[in-house]
């Protein structure tokens, strides 16, 4: 949960450093929305753990794009990596099948 919170904090700081750059401001807002959505999904997953452990919950079986899921996750992690001076890259080209059936929220 720290990763999306750190991403949100990072993008707020970046936006603060460029108060007159509307393009940078919009980019930061978009990334903050992505990170907060990811955090919300994580919180939902934690809350669903008790249901899963008790057998009350079934996992989803729906089609999703693995490349889109990876892109969303990577946007959040990349900020934290940059702040630590870490070069972070994901190669989606190695995926043989990017359209999968499963529970994307749980994979995320």
From TrEMBL:
<dbReference type="Pfam" id="PF00512">
    <property type="entry name" value="HisKA"/>
</dbReference>
<dbReference type="GO" id="GO:0016301">
    <property type="term" value="F:kinase activity"/>
</dbReference>
<dbReference type="InterPro" id="IPR003661">
    <property type="entry name" value="HisK_dim/P_dom"/>
</dbReference>
<keyword id="KW-0597">Phosphoprotein</keyword>
<keyword id="KW-0808">Transferase</keyword>
<dbReference type="InterPro" id="IPR036097">
    <property type="entry name" value="HisK_dim/P_sf"/>
</dbReference>
<feature type="domain" description="Signal transduction histidine kinase dimerisation/phosphoacceptor">
    <location>
        <begin position="1"/>
        <end position="55"/>
    </location>
</feature>
<dbReference type="InterPro" id="IPR050956">
    <property type="entry name" value="2C_system_His_kinase"/>
</dbReference>
<keyword id="KW-0418">Kinase</keyword>
<protein>
    <recommendedName>
        <fullName>histidine kinase</fullName>
        <ecNumber>2.7.13.3</ecNumber>
    </recommendedName>
</protein>
């Amino acid at each position: 949960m720290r990763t999306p919170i750190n991403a949100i904090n990072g993008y707020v700081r970046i936006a603060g450093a460029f108060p007159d750059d509307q393009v940078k401001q919009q980019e930061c807002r978009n990334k903050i929305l992505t990170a907060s959505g990811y955090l919300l999904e994580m919180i939902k997953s934690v809350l669903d753990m008790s249901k899963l452990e008790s057998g009350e919950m079934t996992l989803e079986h729906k089609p999703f794009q693995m490349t889109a899921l990876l892109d969303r996750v990577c946007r959040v992690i990349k900020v934290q990596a940059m702040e630590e001076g870490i070069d972070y890259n994901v190669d989606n080209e190695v995926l043989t099948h990017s359209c999968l059936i499963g529970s994307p929220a749980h994979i995320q």
